[in-house]
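Good morning,

Attaching, inline, the backbone tokens for the sequence recovery test we're adding to the shared suite. The designed sequence is right after.
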């Protein structure tokens, strides 16, 4: 069987990298949300008679 008497802990979380990733996610979400709104407005203008 495996020896579980010693535990290895991972290194502490890199908060700077975490915050950078989160900021990128928020920025991307805003861009995609804006693109969807523009698309819907353009569809309303050109496809509705």
């Amino acid at each position: 069987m495996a020896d579980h008497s010693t535990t290895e802990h991972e290194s502490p979380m890199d908060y700077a990298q975490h915050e950078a990733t989160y900021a990128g996610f928020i920025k991307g979400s805003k861009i995609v949300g804006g693109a969807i709104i523009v698309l819907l407005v353009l569809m309303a203008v050109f496809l509705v008679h």
